[in-house]
Amino acid sequence: MKLYDTQLAPNPRRVRLFMHEKGINDVEIVSVSLLEGAHKQPDYLQKAGLANVPMLEMDDGTCITESLAICRYLESVYPEPNLMGRDAKETAIIEMWTRRAEMLVATPLMMAVRHGHPALAALEKQNPAIGEYNVEAGTKALKVFDRRLAESEWIAADRLTIADIVAFASIDFARMIKFRPPAEMTHVGRWLEAMNARESVSLAK
């Protein structure tokens, strides 16, 4: 298999984090330069269907994009350690928190970076007001996670799961615009320290 990857973007980093947590080391990594428009070239689009990264190309030539779909497939092929649910109840809870992490935290913080970091002006027309609005939205949403992390070491289960990966990748990405969760969110702060201490985070830079 091949993973078409780009180094700085948060969605490909989700997959790299996921793979490192599982110890997956037999997938070839193919670098794709977004700034050079490699994801918009005809050969890439023919495989991916959209100008999206990451993309996983299976051994039979099947290609899938969307980071969570890729992680779901890898979870099936490499079932341990489990990161997406051991039974119906746990799987549903993890998916609930993963959706919350993506919609409430990841999406606004990614939009904030896209519209707030000068280097990304090469990819799209930026609107500073959109960036500022999304910083506020992401910060407000983190209150939900601070409450959750007051009662649980990890976001969705008794261990790290895909929900933690989705939330962390975007919060860490937002450091590009000097974003930091408010100091009073002590439980988010404790969780971020735990995430940053994991070997997968250093490996998936």
What does this structure look like?
By secondary structure, the protein is an alpha+beta fold. Helix content is 54%, strand content 7%. It is built from eight helices and four strands; from the N terminus they run E-H-E-H-E-E-H-H-H-H-H-H. It has helices spanning 10-22, 42-48, 67-77, 88-116, 128-149, 162-173, 186-196, 199-203, and strands at 2-5, 28-31, 55-57, 63-65. It has a four-stranded mixed sheet, with helices on one face. Strand 1 (2-5), helix 1 (10-22) and strand 2 (28-31) form a beta-alpha-beta unit. Helix 4 (88-116) packs antiparallel against helix 5 (128-149) and helix 5 crosses helix 7 (186-196). The mean pLDDT is 95.
- List SSEs in N-to-C order: EHEHEEHHHHHH
Mean pLDDT: 95
Largest sheet: 4 strands, mixed
> What structural class is derived from the secondary structure elements?
alpha+beta
Total strand segments: 4
The proportion of residues in beta strands is 5-15%
Kindly report how far apart the N and C termini lie: 21 Å
Proportion in helices: 40-55%
Question: What is the number of helical segments per DSSP (H or I, 4+ residues)?
Answer: 8
Q: Any key phrases for this structure?
A:
alpha+beta, 8 helices, 4 strands
Summarize the structure.
By secondary structure, the chain is an alpha+beta fold. 54% of the residues lie in helices and 7% in strands.
